[in-house]
Specification:
Elements lengths: L9 H21 L17 E2 L11 H14 L4 E4 L11 H17 L4 E6 L5 H13 L5 E4 L11 H10 L3 E6 L12 H10 L5 E7 L2 H8 L5 E4 L9 H9 L4 E2 L9 H9 L5 H23 L4
Parallel strand pairs: 1-2, 2-3, 3-4, 4-5, 5-6, 6-7, 7-8
Length: 304
């Protein structure tokens, strides 16, 4: 445990916490006890962050992703996913979709061994969305699909997009939220995603944020076996990862941070501080997500 020492500044304390978290993640990835001879040797942590964005700093996609990767390095994070462009657009036109995906492509190309891209589509523009999926996934380096708040995901308009994702062997990262103040008109709930996933049992869905009201979100996802609960976005409340594992099983829980809107450290804390066996922690931090991406990575001949 990192504790405040006499004379330690806030910056020094945060740096020590980051170093401790990175070391803990590395040990968890190898299932080694602290203090063992093997634990004393440096190791590359196996953490893949399933949910991130560009635009949190820097004038260009290249500058933005370089900034985020510096912070990821402090926490021992090996790979990150980015989707959407430098500025978020709730209901992008076909032209805006292309622009946003072009910015993500620039970030991917700036660090191809570290960054995965998910293509951002809008089910209000089905034909154009399918073209973007072909351009960015089939013919480009992206490895997943991102759906946000343009339309609730239980609508039939999503069906062609899901079918194309199945053909391309890629997962769909769907934003899900439950707000006390009321959702946006096109904002999906966990129940909406469960409805869509039941219609497409051969597709793979990642429920981003698990609804934010995660106690309800996990229970909506529980009976639908092709949904993986993703932990990003909410405050690192004690018990979140434990409940996810209890309700869904460790094989259906995925770590994500939603950086740069949330810090890597606060979101990793949900997993690293959880009362879970190391086998479950390894699955959540990277192994589950790598397994979901394995078909498309293999098809593209990409290193995983």
């Amino acid at each position: 445990m990192t504790i405040l020492q006499p004379g330690m500044t806030r910056r020094e304390l945060l740096s020590a916490i980051g170093a401790s978290a990175g070391a803990a993640a590395a040990l968890a990835a190898r299932n080694l006890p602290a203090g063992s001879r093997e634990a004393a040797q440096p190791a590359k942590a196996f953490i893949w962050d399933a949910h991130g964005h560009i635009g949190g700093g820097g004038r260009t996609p290249e500058e933005s992703i370089a900034r985020s990767l510096r912070y990821a390095d402090r926490m021992g994070i090996e790979r990150v996913v980015v989707s959407m462009g430098m500025s978020f657009v709730y209901d992008p036109s076909p032209e805006e979709m292309c622009r946003q995906n072009d910015e993500v492509l620039r970030a991917v190309r700036a660090a191809p061994d570290r960054v995965f891209g998910f293509v951002y589509v809008n089910p209000k523009h089905v034909a154009e969305s399918l073209k973007e999926m072909d351009r960015c996934v089939r013919d480009g380096p992206m490895v997943g699909v991102k759906l946000w708040v343009a339309m609730r995901c239980n609508e039939p308009s999503l069906d062609p997009i899901v079918r194309r994702a199945v053909e391309l062997k890629v997962p769909i990262l769907q934003h899900t939220y439950l707000k006390l103040t009321g959702n946006l008109p096109g904002e999906s709930t966990p129940a909406d995603l469960a409805e869509l996933a039941r219609r497409h049992p051969d597709a793979w869905f990642i429920g981003a944020h698990s609804g934010n009201d995660w106690e309800r979100g996990f229970r909506e996802f529980r009976p639908v076996k092709n949904i993986w609960a993703e932990l990003s976005g909410s405050d690192p409340t004690s018990g979140m990862a434990e409940m996810a594992v209890r309700e869904l099983g460790a094989e259906r829980v995925i770590y994500g941070s939603d950086f740069p809107g949330r810090s890597f450290a606060s979101q990793l804390a949900k997993v690293l501080s959880a009362d879970l066996p190391e086998t479950a922690r390894r699955l959540i931090l990277g192994e589950n997500f790598r397994r979901l991406l394995s078909p498309i990575l293999t098809a593209k001949g990409m290193h995983g």
